[in-house]
Amino acid sequence: MATVAREPPAADRRSPLARLVRDSRTRIALAVLLGVAAAAVFAPLLAPYDPAAQLDIVRLASQPPSAAHPFGTDPFSRDVLSRLLYGSRISLAVGLGAVALAISFGIAVGAVAGFVGGALDAVLMRLVDAALAIPRLLVVILVASLWGTLGLVPLTLLMAGTGWFGVSRLVRAETVALRDREFIVAARALGIPPARLLVRHVLPNVVAPALVAATLGVANVILLEAGLSYLGIGVRPPTASWGAIIQDGASRVADLWWLTLFPGLAILVTVFACNALGDALRDAFDPRQLPRDLVDATFAPEA
Amino acid sequence: MTTPLLEIENLHTFFHTDVGVARAVDGVSFAVGVGETVGVVGESGCGKSVTALSVLRLVRPPGRIEAGSVMRFEGRDLMSLDEREMQHVRGNRIAMVFQEPMTALNPVFTVGDQIGEVARIHAAMSRRESHAKAIEMLKLVGIPAPEQRVDEYPHQLSGGMRQRVVIAMALVMNPALVIADEPTTALDVTIQAQILELLDDLTRRLGTSVLLITHDLGVVAENCARVIVMYAGEVVEEAATTELFARAHHPYTEGLLGAMPRVGGERERLATIPGTVPPPTAWPVGCRFHDRCPYAWERCVAEHPPLYQIGANHVSRCHLADEPERRAHPHPPLAAQRGASAA
Fold it and tell me: How many CA atoms lie within 13 A of B259 on its CB side?
């Protein structure tokens, strides 16, 4: 009990950014994500082959990993490593683009609904409720299959358009809870205009949950895109995407394991990094958070 | 008497809820003079805080300031101002100090940023100027090492220091009126006196009027020239502080005084007022205090008492002003009788 009763800790005075940079999760997550980003940006330089080129459909189809093809080849004799590198472009572009749009829109709708309240709030949130009642995958599959195959931009818009409901609800709930908090009333009592109140006093307090939602959202969209491509209604073939590579080996997973394993690992590691970054962000932006070593010291068994 | 700084007349603030209309403030009138410190006392739920929020027009739906309420401040009718003009009054001419310094500060901004924001909004100061202003204000409210503290977050300060920061925010624009809603209730006893002294000292020096809301008559005795006692959404007694302590008239005020510990007094049990403040959706008919009053008689149940003038600048909402002889015959109040029979 002695550890509990001691002086409140010298609080962490570092800026959120400094805290974030010092967090080991951030470093690992950023290393992974920067790696994926580098792969995406420099794919033309890194890839040993053209990702769409069928090298030799007779002799090089479905080859297991070898020196010439480290990740093997697919049934069309395309180099899997090259396709994987190019596929990271699709995953990142769709993931980041869709989430940036979805989060911005979700925050705007949620904050306004929660802050203004009344009829506007009721109408917006009932619409969101209705939208949330329809499974996202269903909507995405329906639209994608009506469209045939999708280009990158329509795909991103589709993901964004179906991805902002949850965020808006989250932000709305946070805003409502904040609206009646004393420091908001106090800020109003100091004559701070409503728009400024919303932008400066409410929004920074919803940034943390929205950011966590955003990073989870990136992971989600990457998975969703992979799922769509796996179903054959994602990006237009022969464009390489992680889901599409898995699809190419889907009928013979046991034989052509490299077609599942490598893109699967790519998805896993990227999604994991997104989630880890989300956690680190949340902790860094909360100034009430105790420094890590202090938490450990406080809860460590007494010597 | 010169024109008072703030005049409230017939203020009605009702909350239109699903379970009925809560008449939280029900016909309150009072005035605060220039440079004057006026205390508002009463139990929780008697309408003190809603009165304070009403003055700044910060009551949120379902609460509403009803038509017919009059609030004049510096010669202007506050009720006729639009929201924009009202924003210019808030924090600039009338500022508020809240009860909970823990929650009255935004956790994600430094204290300097928050103090400075008031100056940036109302005085169009630049960031650099407002930062200097924040340091100056921290110095004014007696925070040591202000150059360092200015860049700290609220959670890095103690409760007493936070309340000093809140006071600094209130005084940035040198407002004419500060409304302090239970400014020391959330603080340690040892800090309470310091904060009250600080508030008193600063407002005296700056010539600021103060509306000091509290449930603690001891706070009133030390800081206020005049006291308004509120009960069940109404003013029940108003007098100069010395007059009130010497010649309390309303039985509710008597009860509050009786519930106050006295240093050096005889060791007897502190008196309590039996019962609780009734819900604002259903104030009792007649005198709203009759249920808890040791003198109540038939007239109190039937007839709502007006504010009787019982001395120079001393009013009381009690029929005893009319029939003073009844004070000689106290009896257990109805609430206590009910309590006894229930037990």
Answer: 14
> Under an 8 Å CB criterion, which residues of B touch A?
53, 56, 58, 60-61, 84, 87-92, 95-96, 98-100, 103-109, 117-118, 121-122, 152-153, 155-156, 166, 169-170
Compute CA distances A246 → A83, A155, A251, whole Å: 11, 19, 10
Q: Which residues of chain B lie closer than 8 angstroms to A191, CB-CB?
A: 87-92, 118, 121-122
Residue A10 — pLDDT band, cuts 50, 70, 90?
very low
pLDDT at A26 over 60: yes
Q: Which residues of chain B have pLDDT under 70?
A: 1, 261-271, 339-343
Output the furthest CA–CA distance in chain A (Å, rounded): 78
Radius of gyration over every alpha carbon of chain A, rounded to an integer in angstroms: 23
Q: Residue B13 half-sphere exposure, CB side, CA atoms within 13 Å?
A: 29
String of DSSP letters for B70-118: EEEETTEEGGGS-HHHHHHHBTTTEEEE-S-TTTSS-TTS-HHHHHHHH
A277 neighbors A21 (Cβ within 8 angstroms): no
Residue type, B113: D
Percent of chain A with pLDDT over 70: 88
Q: Is the Cβ–Cβ distance between B176 and B146 less than 8 Å?
A: no
Extract the runs of DSSP E, i.e. beta strands, from chain B: 6-17, 20-32, 37-41, 63-65, 70-73, 76-77, 94-97, 177-181, 209-214, 226-231, 234-240, 308-311, 314-316
The phi, psi pair for B325, rounded to 5°, reads -65, -20
CA–CA separation, A132 vs A246, rounded Å?
A: 29
Please indicate, yes or no, whether the overall pTM of this predicted structure exceeds 0.90.
no
Across the interface, whether the CB atoms of A191 and B121 are under 8 A apart is answered yes
Place of tokens 């020096």: B205
Q: Who among B60, B121, B156 is closest to A11 (CB)?
A: B156
Write the single-letter amino acid at A222: I
Tokens 């009734």 sit at which residue?
B278
Q: Is the dihedral of CA B205, B210, B215, B221 positive or negative?
A: positive
Q: Which residue of A has its CA nearest to B88?
A: A191
Nearest by Cα to B58 from A180, A14, A221? A180
Phi and psi at residue B226, in whole multiples of 5°? -140, 150
Q: By the 8 A CB rule, do B199 and B183 touch? A: yes
* ipTM (interface pTM): 0.81
Query: Encoding tokens for residue B266?
Result: 């005889």
Yes or no, beta carbons of B106 and A183 under 8 Å apart: yes
Mutation pick from A7, A17, A181, A190 vs chain B, by most beta carbons of B within 10 Å, is: A190
Instruction: Give the Cα separation of B45 and B316 in Å (integer).
Output: 20
Select from A161, A100, A95, A94 the least CA-distant residue to A128.
A161
Label residue B61 exposed, middle or buried (CB < 10 Å: 0-12, 13-18, 19+): exposed
Give how far the C-alpha of residue A303 lies from the chain's centroid of Cα atoms, to the nearest Å. Answer: 42
Contact A189 B103 (CB under 8 A): no
